[in-house]
Write a structure and sequence with these properties.
- By secondary structure, this protein is of the alpha+beta class.
- It folds into two domains: about 80 residues, Gyrase A, domain 2; about 60 residues, no CATH class.
- The chain contains five helices and nine strands.
- Strands 1-5-4 form a three-stranded antiparallel beta sheet.
Length: about 150
């Protein structure tokens, strides 16, 4: 099982930005270490919105220092591209036309109140922490998410 971190951008990335970010992240992941041991990491940019980092901890475990390195790297990407991967005031969901959308918390709350976000609307739970959860608990119905308790 891998440990997973999901960083959601505060805006959708351009395809050219995704291409460049993929190169930069691959370079980072290939040199990512924990106490001198190479981490078996991989990354992907999904929906031009989410940067996903994974580490297979059976190969080498992550440490506080290695996590700090990744956070510093993600912050540097944000500076380079003028985006914020740490803005928790945006909510992502899938609309009725099956498109990923990004809304401010206030706009999302209004969508819920107006009945546009329904119990079966798919929302993204970026709080997951494992590769198994990425497959089973990342994209879930609003009614099963933490969002339903907040909004």
């Amino acid at each position: 099982m891998s440990t997973v971190w999901i960083y959601q951008s505060d805006r959708f990335l351009l395809d050219s930005e995704v291409d460049e970010i993929n190169i930069l992240v691959q370079d980072f992941v290939s040199s990512w270490t924990a106490h001198g041991s190479a981490l078996a990491g991989k990354s992907s940019v999904l929906y031009n919105l989410f940067l996903v980092l994974e580490v297979d901890e059976k190969v080498a475990g992550v440490t506080g220092c290695s996590i700090d390195k990744s956070v510093h790297f993600i912050k540097s990407l944000g500076s380079k591209f003028g985006i914020d991967f740490f803005n928790r005031m945006r909510v992502s969901y899938v609309d009725v036309e099956n498109n990923v959308q990004l809304a401010s918390r206030n706009d999302f709350e209004k969508l819920v109140k107006d009945g546009i976000i329904k119990n079966d609307t798919i929302v993204f739970n970026n709080l997951i922490g494992s590769s198994e959860e990425l497959l089973t608990k990342w994209k879930i119905p609003f009614s099963e998410s933490w969002h339903s308790k907040v909004f």
